[in-house]
Design brief:
The protein is of the alpha+beta class and 420 residues long. The protein has 12 helices and 24 strands. Helix 2 crosses helix 8. The protein binds one RNA strand of 74 nucleotides through helix 10 and helix 11.
Length: 420
RNA sequence: CGGGCCGUAGUAUAGUGGCAGUACACAUGCUUUGGGAGCAUGUAGUCUGGGUUCGAUUCCCAGCGGCCCGACCA
């Protein structure tokens, strides 16, 4: 949906917030995408909500293509299932007392919850396999929030859980999910910076896979074999691991990276204690084999901001930009305003989401600075100058040269760029 | 959770044991419109609680909050 900037909820700021060092949060606050509530806790304002929704929808499409069915589990978690898996007493919980007695925790992940629910729906081998996912707020009582959106106490997470009759089926699904994840990172613009990384399996299995996006701001250190498109997390680096994955020491480069996703083979770590099992064809009771697969849309949001930005502001990849085009009317003449209004309608009718800077009072320099800061992929300027040269000036955020085009050409140009 | 730094207007900052200042933003008016414009007028502030003091925004203590380093990160 297109919008006039005079209607937009937010304004940009001239000064960066003093209490944010992380580039992602500083820029996003300055440009009006997010609002900081507390350390590691952010609200999403209209521009930010649009980006987050685009990221989420790309993920959603891939999850649906995998056969995942979307659910929305409660954030409040009762103790029972978590006590069975010995995860109720972890410090990561935010817990709260009920007035009527008893205690609830705020979900920081949902393996226990979904496993318990599936007991109602899986009883036979005929009920398998199944995959369910949700995109939801998670709460983690981090001892130290940091790096803006990259490590928050409250954040958005897509978590997918898969249920299988045997390990072979889990393995096959796990591979498809890995490919789906790589596709997601490509689509949102992080593909060339993101690498499959062997990491610790935690308490679930020997190893797991992470997806690490190279960035100086990353908290993780990985050893990357660039040609093989595979990395090893420093936490498990050893000769054994290298041998197992066919990597050579001399081809590894040390890099900082942001963990943007992970996939785990859980096996029966949750199904056994919680009692999720099925009857096989012989009538024997067998525990369900599970996997879990996480991606944090809010962390991706911050990662993109961190990577795609310069001194002037953000530079959104096309697929996740809050708008496709930023139409800027320069100068207050009636002729300019009428032509800009017409072009705004034309862009909108063509299905190009456009933010229209129709402010009468803002100076030209302020408008350009705002356009650079907000970072919408295409900037279109209508001014007396552009009208004299035959239409509107069009420029990508990532380019410095503008070109002049008629209204029709402008619309066509952006449609082509977006393959609409 | 250990260590360090820091809380002054919506934002960014200065300053002082005795009337708290500047810039941006905001409001009104006029001017202005190709890289954060100009003039005038106006609105708006010392995190909370205790202590010392004639007097505390300033000094002391505690709390709350923020940032950084480390530890942690299923």
């Amino acid at each position: 949906m297109s919008m006039r900037q005079t209607h937009l909820l937010t304004k940009t700021r001239k000064d960066a917030p003093a209490d944010e060092v992380a580039k992602n949060a500083a820029l996003l606050i300055k440009a009006g995408f997010i609002h900081k509530e507390a350390a590691g806790i952010y609200s999403y304002l209209p521009l930010g909500e649009r980006v987050l929704t685009k990221i989420s929808n790309i993920i959603r499409n891939e999850m649906n293509a995998l056969g995942g069915q979307e659910v929305f589990l409660s954030a409040f978690q009762p103790a029972e299932a978590w006590q069975k898996t010995n995860r109720w007493d972890l410090p990561v919980w935010f817990k709260t007392k009920l007035v009527s007695g008893g205690e609830l925790g705020l979900g920081w992940t949902h393996e226990e919850a979904i496993t318990a629910i599936m007991k109602n729906h899986i009883a036979s081998y005929k009920d398998l396999p199944k995959a369910v996912y949700q995109i939801q707020t998670k709460f983690r009582n981090e001892e130290r929030a940091k790096s803006g959106l990259l490590r928050g106490r409250e954040f958005m997470m897509k978590d997918l859980y898969s249920f299988h009759a045997d390990t072979a089926d889990l393995e096959a699904f796990h591979e498809r999910c890995r490919d789906a994840y790589l596709s997601i990172f490509r689509q949102i613009g992080l593909g060339e910076h993101t690498y499959l990384t062997v990491a610790s399996g935690g308490h679930f299995s020997k190893y797991s896979f992470e997806f690490q996006t190279l960035s100086k701001s990353g908290e993780d250190t990985i050893y990357l074999a660039r040609q093989k498109k595979l990395a090893v997390n420093k936490e498990i680096l050893s000769d054994d691991v290298l041998a197992e994955y066919g990597l050579l020491k001399n081809e590894l480069e040390e890099q900082s990276a942001i963990e943007v996703g992970n996939i785990f083979k859980l096996g029966t770590r949750f199904s056994e204690p919680i009692g999720l099992s099925y009857k096989d064809e012989a009538g024997a009771l067998v525990p369900v084999v599970m996997g879990s697969y996480g991606i944090g849309p809010s962390r991706l949001f911050g990662t993109i901001a961190e990577i795609y930005s310069d001194n002037s502001g953000l530079k959104w990849p096309d697929a996740v930009a809050p708008f496709a085009a930023h139409l800027v009317a320069v100068g207050g003449t009636d002729e300019v305003r009428e032509e800009a209004d017409r072009l705004f309608d034309a862009l909108d009718r063509a299905g190009i989401e456009t933010l229209y800077d129709d402010r009468q009072t803002a100076q030209t320099g302020e408008k350009f600075a705002d356009a650079d800061l907000i970072g919408i992929p295409f900037r279109i300027v209508v001014s007396t100058k552009s009208l004299d040269s035959g239409g509107a000036e069009i420029k990508r955020r990532t380019e410095t040269e503008t070109r002049v085009a008629s209204s029709e050409e402008t619309v066509r140009h952006i449609l082509d760029a977006y393959h609409i």
